[in-house]
Amino acid sequence: MASVPVLSVFSFPNANRTSWLSPSGLFAFGFYPQDDGFAIGIWLVNQTEKTIIWTANRDDPPVTSNATLNFTIDGKLLLRTEQGREFSISDVDTVTSAAMLDYGNFVLYRNDSYVIWDSFDFPTDTILGGQNLSSGKSLVSSMSISDHSSGHYSFNMQEDGNLVAYPVNSSNNPQDAYWSSETFYGSYASLILSGLGVLFVHLSEGQRQILANSSNPDKNGTTIYRATLDADGIFRLYLHHFKNDNSSSMLMEWSALSDQCDVKGFCGLNSYCSGMGSKADCNCYPGFDFINTSNKFLGCYHNFSEDDCRRSKDPAMLYNVTSLENIVLRGNYPYAVKPMLKANCGQFCLEDCNCGAVSYTDSNCRKYKLPLRYGRINANESTITFFKLKGIHSTQIPELFIGSKRSLILILSVILGAVSCLCLVLAASSFFVYRQKLVRYRKLSENVNLGLAEEFTLRLFSYNELESATDGFKEEIGRGSYGVVYKGITSSGGKTIAVKRLEKANSMNISVKTDIYSFGVVLLEIVCCRRSIELNVSTADEIVLTDWVYNCVAAGELQRLVVVEDENVDFRKLERTVKVGLWCVQEDPALRPSIKNVILMLEGKIDIPVPPSPVLCIAVS
User: Which residues of this UniProt protein bind ATP (predicted)?
Assistant: First the structure.
C-alpha cells in the first residue's frame, strides 16, 4: 500500500510529483491532461495512453498547469488553483493519511487506520474488479473519449432491483429506457464486478444474475477488469493484461448492446439513427435541418414556419408530404389513431396544424406531434411514415378568390374609400381623446387626496408613509428579489398595497439581460393569468408569482398553474414554457439564457435543464 502523509503537495510543473502511484505502479492518482488544462483523477498506467477510470469534480472546468493538490495539516485534500481558490476533493476532514491501492481505489484514513472516504463509493463512468454499484447509485458516461465531464447517458441501479440505462435528462420512464437487466428483486440488489471478471447483479437472499463472464486471464502477468458506460451510451466489460515483459493489451469481453442505434438519444430531437452495429449515423427527417452539423446530438429544427397554417382556411394547400419507410418512433405516443387506407394517411396529417408526422402500419394511421424522439431505421418494421414539407403555395394564404377584373376594381375602390374615411375618423377621435385625457390629468394632478386610483400617475412615497401603511412592516406576505414583501393599506382611499422592503443595496449597473428578465415575468404572467404580485390569493405562498411557480414545478403540481380546467392542456408544453420563464427570471444575469436560446427552448429544439430557485440564487449572491 502506497501511503502518503499529511503536508504533501503535488503540482503539475514538478515532473517528479504529478501523481501518487499504487505499489505495483499500475494505477495512479493525480493530474492528467484534459482539453487545454488538467483534471484530477485515477487512471490505469498503460504504455500508450492513460485509461481514465475516475475523475474528481468531473464537471468543473480544467485547471491550469500552476494548480496544486494539497494534503493539509488539518486533514483535508484540496485542489488549489493558480488564482488561490480551493476546492475539496472529498467531503471529509480529520484525515491523517491517504493511499492509492493496487486494485484502483483511492482511500483516505483517520489516525486509527479506519477508511473514512474512498473513490469506489463515488464512481463516475466505471467500476473495477472488486467494486460494486449499490442500489440508488448510477454511472454517467463521459462526454467523449478525451472529455471526462458528464455525458449523455446514465446507468442506474434502481431501488426495485432493476439495472437500467437511460438518456440523461429524460424522465426515466420505461419508454426512455434502452437497456435493462430485467431483475426486479427488491431494494437490496447491486451490480458487482468480481476480481475474476464476473459481472453480475447480486439479488436478495444470495441470488445473482450473471451478465458477463470474462475469459480466463493469462497467468503470465497481471489482469485487471473494468466495466465502463462508454461515451456512446453502451455498457461494456474490458480486460487489461499487463505482461511481465512490461507490455500491455486490452480486450473488450462483453457489450450490453451490439447496435449503436439501439441507444435512445444517440441522435437528437427530430432526427433518426441509421446503420447497423458501430457504423451508425444521424439524419434529419424531411423538412428539418441540423441545429449544428458538427454536433448531431443537438438534433434538428423545422426549416419552415407553420404560422400560416392556423390562419388558413385550407391548411392542406400549404404543404406537401413525403415518406420514409421502416422508421420506428420509440419516444412518442400518437395523439390520434384512425383506421384508413395508406393513400389517405398523408392527407390526414396535412389537414391538422398540430400534426408533425403520421405513421401507417396495420391499416391504421397514427398522428404525432413534434418534437420526435428516439427515431431509428428498423428493416424488420413494415412502417411508412409521412412528414410535412413546405408547399409551393405556402407563402400564399388562400382565403379570398377574385372572380373577375371588374369585381377586383370595385372591391379595391370600396376599400380605398373606406380606408380614407377611417383615417379621418381616427384623426378626429385621437385629437378628442387627447384633449379629454389632458383635462383629466390636470384635474388629477390638482387633487393629491384621490388615493391610488387605477388611472392615477406614479407618485413618490416617503418611508414614514410606507411604515404607517404597513403598520410598522408587520404583516409579511412573501419574499422577492432583495427583500421582504409586506401587506399595507393606504391612508387615503384605503387601497390594499404590497410594499417591498429592501434588505441590501445593489450598486450594479443594469444587466444586459434585463429584457430577458422582463420577458420571463411576462411569460409566467401569461401562463398563470395573473400579476407578478397578487394579494387576493388563497395562501401566502401564492403571493409572489415566481416563488409560487417554482414551488409548483418542484412539487410536480403543474395543474395548479392552469386557471381553467381543460382536458386538452398539453402539460409537456406547459412545463417547457414554465421552465423557460423560471430561467429568464434568475437573479444572476449569467444564468439567464440568451434570447436565441429562449426561442430554441420554447420551440423544443434544445433540452431545458431544471431551473434553480430564484430565491436560492438571491441568498447565495
Answer: 500
What radius of gyration do the chain's Cα atoms show?
A: 32
What Cα–Cα distance (Å) separates residue 72 from each residue in 69, 115, 211, 216? 9, 18, 43, 44
| Mean pLDDT, residues 603-607 taken together | 83
pLDDT level of residue 458 (50, 70, 90 thresholds): low
What are 322-377's pLDDT values in tens digits? 999 999 998 888 999 999 999 999 999 998 989 999 999 999 999 999 999 999 99
What does the alpha-carbon distance between residue 175 and residue 173 come to, in Å, rounded to a whole number? 5
Task: Please answer whether residues 485 and 537 qualify as being in contact, where contact means their C-beta atoms are separated by less than 8 angstroms.
Answer: no
Q: Which of 40, 27, 45, 48 is nearest to 71 (CA)?
A: 40
Nearest residue to 43 (alpha-carbon basis) of 113, 145, 111: 145
Dihedral of alpha carbons 615, 617, 620, 621, sign = negative
Instruction: Say how many CA atoms lie within 13 Å of 287 toward its Cβ.
Output: 22
**500 appears as a binding residue in the annotation:** yes
CB 337 within 8 A of CB 345: no
Q: What domains does the chain contain, in order, with CATH numbers?
A: 1-122 (2.90.10.10), 123-257 (2.90.10.10), 262-390 (no CATH), 463-502 (3.30.200.20), 514-620 (1.10.510.10)
CA distance 152 to 233: 7
Residue 327 and residue 382: Cα distance in Å, rounded?
9
Give the residue among 136, 176, 171, 142 at the shortest CA–CA distance from 156. 136
Q: Which of 451, 456, 473 is nearest to 464 (CA)?
A: 473
DSSP, residue by residue, 285-347: PTTEEES-TT-GGG-EEESS--HHHHH-S-GGGTEEEEEEESEEE-S---SEEEE--HHHHHH
Q: Which percentage of the chain shows pLDDT scores above 70?
A: 84
Question: Is there a contact between 611 and 586 (Cβ–Cβ < 8 Å)?
Answer: yes
Answer positive or negative: Cα dihedral of 468, 469, 471, 472: negative
For residues 377 and 391, give the distance between their C-alpha atoms in angstroms, rounded to a whole number: 26
How buried is 299 (Cβ within 10 angstroms: 0-12 exposed, 13-18 middle, 19+ buried)? Answer: buried
> What is the number of other CB atoms lying within 10 angstroms of the CB of residue 534?
17
Please calculate the CA angle 153-125-605 and round it to the nearest 5 degrees.
20
Query: Is the entire prediction scored with pTM above 0.90?
Result: no
Section 599-619 average pLDDT: 75
Report DSSP letters for 228-286, one per residue: EE-TTS-EEEEEEEE-TTS-EEEEEEEES-S-GGGSTTSS-TTEEEEEETTEEEEEEPT
The whole-angstrom separation of Cα 621 and Cα 608 is: 23
The dihedrals phi and psi of 462, each to the nearest 5 degrees, come to -85, 160
pLDDT in tens, 462-514: 888 888 888 888 887 766 555 677 888 887 767 778 787 766 555 445 555 77
Please give the Cα distance from 409 to 461 (Å, whole number): 62
What does the alpha-carbon distance between residue 365 and residue 211 come to, in Å, rounded to a whole number?
A: 40
DSSP string, 28-39: EEEEEEETTEEE
Average pLDDT for the chain: 82
**Omega cis (within 30) before 371:** yes
| Strand order across the 106-109 sheet | 2-5, 97-100, 106-109, 115-118
Contact 527, 581 (CB under 8 A): yes
